[in-house]
């Protein structure tokens, strides 16, 4: 809340110290886009066109040991498209058995794989 008050004060000072030609100066495209009002505007443009392409989920399993696998229990949960509220996939629901498999795979990769031989710089890439 405090940051929005600071922004409002900044905009008020900028607008009150500006001349009307600065406030409404025309941009290069012929619209009123170059002035302070356009620069500090909080108005949003609403576009009613549907977003394309539709969401496509490729992987719905748990990533364990470099492979996408189903949950040990076989359970899934729906994942919703936040734009429409429609179900876009049923994703694997991991539980303690899945966590144990993932931790064991990570431990194996760290102990036997290339990770222990890497420098910090190499492992960050």
UniProtKB/TrEMBL annotation:
Superkingdom of origin organism: Eukaryota
Pfam families: Aldedh (PF00171)
Domain called Aldehyde dehydrogenase: residue spans: 68-122
GO molecular function: oxidoreductase activity
SUPFAM superfamilies: ALDH-like
Cross-referenced InterPro entries: Ald_DH/histidinol_DH (IPR016161), Ald_DH_N (IPR016162), Aldehyde_DH_dom (IPR015590)
PANTHER family attached to this UniProt entry: ALDEHYDE DEHYDROGENASE-RELATED
Identification of the protein by name: Aldehyde dehydrogenase domain-containing protein
Lineage: Eukaryota, Viridiplantae, Streptophyta, Embryophyta, Tracheophyta
